[in-house]
Amino acid sequence: MIGYYLYFVVVDSHDILNNPYNHRIDSQSSTVIRGTIYSKNGKKLAYTDTKNTESDLTDDTREYPYGNVFSHAIGITTHGKYGLEKMCNYDLLSSQTNVISKIVDDFTDNTEKGCDVHTTLSVNIQKTAYNSLKGYKGAAFVMNPTTGEIYSMVSLPSYDPSTINDIWDQIANDPNDSRLVNRATQGKYIPGSIFKILTTLEYMRENKNYNDFSYNCNGQANFGGFSIKCFNGNSHGSETLKDAFAYSCNSAFSTIGNSLKVSKFKKTAEDLMFNQKLPLDMDYNQSVFPLDKDSTEFDITQTSIGQGKTTISPAHMAMIASAIANDGVLMKPYIVDHIESSSGNVVSYTKHEKYKTLMTKAEAKQLQEYMAAVCEYGTGRIMTNSDYSAYGKTGTAEVDKKDNVNSWFVGYAKKGKRKIAIAVVIENMPEGSNSAVNCVKEIFDSYFDKK
C-alpha cells in the first residue's frame, strides 16, 4: 500500500489530475482565470479574455490568436480537452499563489489567475510548416536534437479552436472528419523508403565489412514468385551502400533485407522504439514493426523498403533523425519549457534530459554520411546549394493502386552550433513528387535565416 501510494504521488497523480474526466479540477474554472499559453519567444498562443471575467469565466472566453496554425499543439478546452490545454490543465487552473493571497481573494471575492505555460514552440517555424503543408493532408514534427525542445507540431487538416463549438456537430457526426487527429503524433503511416535508415543500420550491425557492399542494379530484384522494382524501373547500375541509400534503390534494399536475420532486425527496430512506448507527454500511437519468425520472404523484402504492415508517426521518425544528429543519443522531447505563477515565480521548469542511446556514435556517424549523400547527389539534392548542411532520407510510401503515395522527408540540418531535426509527411501525392523535401527546405531556410 505504501509502495503504491508513493508510485501514485510520483508517477500517476499528474496524469489523473489532468484526465479530461476529472471534473474536480474543471470545477475550479468558475473561480480561476485560466492561465495563458506562450510560445518560445513570449507570443500568446492561448489566453482567457479578461474583459468579462467578473461575470463569465467559462471556456467560451478562451482566445486563440493564431487560429488554425497551432490547433493540434494547443488544443481545446470544450467537448473534452486536447493538446496542451489537456496536458497542462491542472497548471492552467492552479494559481500557485501564497496562502495569504488565497485567503484575501476568498474574503474579497477576487478571482485568482492560473499559472502560465511557457512552451518551446516557435511561431516562425510553426507558421512556415503550416503554410508549406496548407492545402494537403499531412504533418510535420520539428525538434532540437541537442536539447529535445519541440519547435513545431503541425497537423492538417486543422481547425480554429475559437470556432470549435460551431463545427463540433459536423465533426462528431462525420466519421471521416479527421480534423481532431494530431497526425504528427497519432498518425499511423507506412514509412516507405525512410525506413531504409533502419534497414541500413541492421545491415551494418550484421556485416562489419558493410563498406565493401556492392550491387549492380538493373531496375528490378527477383525473388521466389515476385519481384521488387525501383522507381519507374530505373537502373542505378553499380552501387556502393552509400549510393544505394542516396538513390533509394529498392532493388538493393530488398536484397539486403532478404539477407538479414529477422530476430536481430526486430531487436534493432525495438531499440529504436518500434513496438514500444515513446517519450512523449502528449497523446500518441505506438509505431509497429511486424516481422517475426513466421514472416515470409515477401513480408521481409516489403518491410526492408518500408512497405508492408510497418507503421510510424512523424514524431517518432523525427526522434530517430534527432538521435542520428546527436551522435546516437536521443534527448527526451519536451514542449513545456516552464510553468510560471501569476505573481511571476517559476513553479517548475524542464531540464534537458538524455532519454536513450539509440545507436553507437560510430553507427550514427556512418548514417550521417549516408544522409548527407542523399542531399548532395541523391533524391534530396534540392538541398545542395543551401547555406547550411542538410542530411536526410526521402520516402514515397505506396497507399493505393492509383500511383498515389505518402511523400516523406526525414532528417536534420546544421549551421555552426545550430541544429534542427525534422520529419514531414504529405498524404496522397502523385508518385515521384518531391513535395515533402520541398516543404522541409522551406522550413530549414526559414529557421537558419532567423538569427
UniProtKB/TrEMBL annotation:
Official protein name in the record: Penicillin-binding protein 2
PANTHER family to which the protein is assigned, alphabetical: PENICILLIN-BINDING PROTEIN 4B, PEPTIDOGLYCAN D,D-TRANSPEPTIDASE
Pfam families: Transpeptidase
Protein origin, superkingdom: Bacteria
Record-annotated Penicillin-binding protein transpeptidase domain positions: 138-444
InterPro entries: Beta-lactam/transpept, Beta-lactam/transpept-like, PBP_dimer_sf, PCN-bd_Tpept
